[in-house]
User: Fold ABC multidrug transporter from Purpureocillium lilacinum.
Amino acid sequence: MVWADMTLDFASSALAPVFGFLVYSLLARNNDNGTLTEGVAFASLSVFELLQQPMMYAIDGVEHVKTIINSFRRIQEYLQAKETEDYRITPESSSSSSRTSICKVVEEKDMMLKEKPALEKYHFSVTVQQGSAGYSDDELILKELDFELPLGQTTVIMGPVGCGKSTLLKLILGELPVFSGTIVTSFSKAAYCSQSPWTTWGSIQSNIVGMSPWDQEWYASVVSACALSADFAELADGDQTPIGTRGARLSGGQQMRVSLARALYSRNSVLVLDDCLSGLDRTTERHIVDAVFGPEGLLKRMGHHLSFADYVVFLDSNGMITRHGAKDSMSSEDEIVQEVSEESTTPRQPVDPADAELPEEMLQELDLLDDPDQGVSRMTGDLKVYAYYAKIAGPWTMFIYLLACATFVFAIWVQWWTNANAEYPNDRLGYYLGVFAGLGLLTVIGCTLADRCGAQTFAQHDDAVRICPAFPEHLLTALKGPDCVSHLNKCGYNNQPVRSQAKKHTLASELMHKNRFSQDLELIDNDLPQSIDSFIFQFMSAIVSAVFVFIGSGYVAAAIPACLALLILLQFYYLRTSRQLRLLDIEAKAPLFSQFLETVNGIACIRAYGWTQNYSDRNYNALNASQKPFYLLYCIQRWLTLVLDLFNAGVAIMLVGIATNIQNGSTSFLGVALFNIVTFSSTLQTLVTAWTQVEMALGAINRIRSFVKTVKDENVATEIEEVPEEWPQHGAISFTNVSASYETSSEPVLKDISFSIQPGEKIAICGRTGRSVSGKSSLVSAILRMLEIDSGTISIDGVDVSTISRQEIRRRLITLPQEPFFIHGSVRENIDPQEGATDERIQEVLRSVDMWNFFETRGGLDELLDDDKLSHGQRQLFCLARAILKQGKILIMDEATSSVDSDTDTVMQRVLREEFAGRTMIAIAHKLQTILDFDRVLLLDKGQIVETGNPQELLANDTSAFRALYESLGSTTEEL
Assistant:
């Protein structure tokens, strides 16, 4: 629609004089009462010039009104949507509001609720009577709940994977719609520590303190209890270290402990923990349990040791409570008691989703400002940017555009026409009218085609993908998060040629990607073509108006140098300021986006802590701050209007003063000149404003140009060897003197690694975690060609991987990443992105991971997959099913079972042994007890192989480094 509006704009300005002169000339010739003279022609052009701007506003206004109406409609739909309701009866909920809220649900669902209990006295922290809840009434997750949780005691919720344990916690916190029954809680606020840690942009200290008042002594106690003191000592800035986007500077275990520390520091009377200790090693877990829940721990007045739960609630796979009560009241043979005891004694190993072994140099890439020279680039333009845009647009597009714009100055033809009429009135009328009409049509067609081509250069044209192939990948990164490209590459589902090194971009700021590939591309796709059109059109109009003014009085031409000098000076100061303000306007929205994303990701925690008003205030503050550059820009635009009006008034005074003091002046041309003075000021203002918009849009191009320029192409010209379709047939892998390092690291992360893996062999890669480098993930990245090899060779089935396309390697290997990922689409599209499996095979694989019943009751394979409704264990099992469907002889697991509960881990270990029998398996392991049946273990430290051998044999050796690591993580050989 944008280019269609532009076509109408050009038609109104270019064709109106054609029809006007046509009618006038025909009437004059037929009536034989005159001809088109110079005075009439240029006076008419002045009238058309005066009418041009209102006509363009009228045409553009129709589309703008439609856009405004659609925006209002979307806002109205959002405001009229059902608001989130807290269906609980809490001490802070008034009798009327609570009763109204509950009764409203009753009327809608035609259900009977019990009478509201008295709130004066609470004997239980939570009371649920006949409660059924879920995300919709036809998809209830929890059904017919009847239980009471005692005050001041520790309650443990147990159940199989996907039964609704986390959902029950959300129900208790008021985050889940209730469709029948009543829920009464003795609290309105609670400290909530979710299974996926929630972190915000800021320092570690600000994440722990949150909106709670500062207490130095209590803060120190909490930090010590959560075993964070040692981590602070290893960080250069201690607890003032910025966490980064989504906690990228911290390991997964550190994020969990920070989240737990926030819950403890808030001092809420109720603590809700969703498996927050599952990713910690046994030593750290034991320290936290003793320091927090032990007899002398921080919560000694609130509860007891976690290993000795006072109360147990057990859910079945249908979301119903099969049994609940005090643990002491159950027999020791009871299944629930056994499960609680096993859960409390299960060795836990550290989880590190953020790849904590990255060097400090690479962590420094996470600064919010990605360009240190950005402040300078705001103030000055760069001619190279214009050349870059012209190159991307293409030579033919630019040629057509410039040719079309050149035809805009057809006043010269009018001058020739009127001169001919002065000698031979109305002679060769068809010739002059035809050429004049042709110039107008050529202008409309040429500018429309140029705009159409230019608008598609970055948006839809295939050449844009070929010239800048990094754009699609990073647009995906903006939408799905920076890890998505890395996951797609690792799993081999990204078939497009990837120019950028995905590993590097997993470290970049997600907010910068969002800002660059949303607002910047919006400027390039929409604003830039319109701004260029407006600038060129106003530039031509200004030239024509200036010519008319100077024709009115030739003496005014003597003032041209002074006028040009004044305009250049004005342009210098205005553009210098407005360019900075417009770019600051773009950048000022990044904190607002950050605040919005943090709020959306942590909305359950925010409401649980009772920080809703605090975050609303922060959002208003971020919104106000984001509008300041925009307001200042309007201020200087008003200043520009004033200065240009004064300039125009000066020219008008000079014109009238000279014209009234000279003899033999042309009154008709003087009238034309005065007429053009009226529009000259607005033309100049629009011209400067349009030029500023062009500069701002070109600033967006400069950001993308700099980004593309600095990102190295990961594809190498030597990677051209073709491999058979069945490769790898056996699954043998060989490392020969391999050394590798990251781009910003002076120290290699892999140092002279040499080893071989036989076909069908199961290899576990182990090593210490933390800030130091062990090389586990780096070794896997080297196999997948996501880490550049400095020296040595890696071969798979005798083929050097450095000679094969990286995309082909990733497509042929099976990879199970630590963090599950999903795409927007159906269950079938998520589990089989390559569409190579039958429905029967997909169902068979889902049954093997105990998930087919879950999807079958929710619409089957064609149902839209909402990963938010899957538990953490279900997400990982789904990714395991996806890996089973992919054909290949080599499976690489990047700590895929490190952050799942014991039930999920049991299912995954069973499936791995059954489905991947006979295939080569490489697993990065933190839960060392899960790899004791592997054929061989590879122990890495600081990028070197420290020890290798059978894990059982190494554990039997008192001097084994693997045994020392095993025991340091809390396990003992006596448990084997």
About this structure: The longest strand covers residues 124-136. DSSP finds 36 helices and 18 strands in the chain. The mean pLDDT is 75.
